[in-house]
What we know:
The chain is of the alpha/beta class. 43% of the residues lie in helices and 14% in strands. It has a single domain, classed as NAD(P)-binding Rossmann-like Domain (Rossmann fold, 3-Layer(aba) Sandwich).
Amino acid sequence: MQPNDIRPLAVVTGASSGIGFQLALLAARRGHDLLIGADEPLEQAETELRVLGANVAAVRADFATRDGVDTLLAATEGRPIAALFANAGHGLGHGFLDQDFHDVQHVINTNITGTIYLVQCVGRGMREAGQGRILITGSIAGFQPGSFQAVYNGSKAFIDSFAMALRNELKGTGVSVTCLMPGVTDTHFFARADMLDTRVAQQSDKADPAEVARAGFEAMMRDESGVIAGWRNKMQVALSRVMPAPRLAEQHRRIAEPGSAEQQARPFV
Length: 269
Ligand SMILES: NC(=O)c1ccc[n+]([C@@H]2O[C@H](COP(=O)([O-])OP(=O)(O)OC[C@H]3O[C@@H](n4cnc5c(N)ncnc54)[C@H](OP(=O)(O)O)[C@@H]3O)[C@@H](O)[C@H]2O)c1
């Protein structure tokens, strides 16, 4: 990646679609060069980002593996990273006992292990440089037991907590950490999680990934600890803090159970 002293470098994982692609667009519009990564082809994203004047490099790799993350970081060729968007993640629908453990492990390795390994590697460089911004994509799902998405919600509970703790650890170092906690957002997430027959996937008023990304980007630039994207999601998180966990698990069942798309209940995620 050719050094360009004027444009700071932003690294965005999960940039081939959804919230990650929107974060990359915002970073390009705000004058960053980009290193983007995902495990599917990125040519389309690269082309659209270059139109905005950014120098763009892309790495196709599986960020559930340390090798995949190392391949991404090697592509910076030692250029300092000004902003990291640790966004790559995916879900997994169906009952836990019916899931293939390889798929379960891949959710944990993508959403937790690969994400925090990336954050540790980049965070060390930023701390040494005395500056940098990190936005980690968690979820409001982290505030609720996720019946029929149990491992996913658990992984986001880890990330929501981890991001806040790391932010505190890095106080005074010049490195900021912000956690973006979206609610139900209109992306490929539900197709990838094999949840299209669920009520949550069929929900008509999903959030716009561009708006969710903007909320995260702005919160990171304002050096805020976290942002829950959208007032309804804020209400739901507030509710989840007072509702008994068994009630929350039952509500998640009603929206995520396979085949639940038929019933017209109000979702709670
Ligand atoms: N959509 C929602 O309702 C929602 C709500 C809360 C939080 N989130 C979180 O938001 C983040 C972005 O998801 P999204 O909704 O924008 O869904 P999306 O459109 O499916 O985007 C996910 C991105 O992450 C990449 N990715 C996933 N696993 C990967 C892996 N192992 N290695 C490399 N790349 C990987 C995907 O790459 P490919 O597509 O190229 O495989 C894609 O670029 C995730 O962390 C998700 O958990 C989503």
